[in-house]
Amino acid sequence: MLIILTPPPLLPLMAKVKSCYLIWITFYQILPKIYKYSLGQKVDTYFIEIMEAISIATFLSREEKHPWVRLAIRKIDTLKILLMVLWETKSLDDKKYISLSLQIDEIGRMLGGWNGQLIKQNSPTKIGEK
């Protein structure tokens, strides 16, 4: 009897982060040693922390999601800068940097949309209502 395991479906945002992280892992493995265990490790940690924040926000009530989404946005912004440093130090070539940057920009837009939606949903609907 053959059992085929299929992973559970992910939210589009989490699927995008996972996809980008899988690309990063291949680049991380070939980073120069001088950056691999410092800046490269930090980038890797940020990816994991972003996935964690999104995962936590996914299972919280609407009112509790916002801080976690904002945290993921801050980490994405920092991740962009760290990758830029790796690119400027020639640790990532143009093609690798562009492939990661495009996906990270899209993740940032998705998080921004989620953040905007949460702000609208959590704002009082009538003047004076809280």
Automatic annotation (TrEMBL):
Natural source organism: Candidatus Nomurabacteria bacterium GW2011_GWB1_35_20
Protein name: S23 ribosomal protein
InterPro entries tied to this protein: 23S_rRNA_IVS_sf, bAvd
Superkingdom, natural source: Bacteria
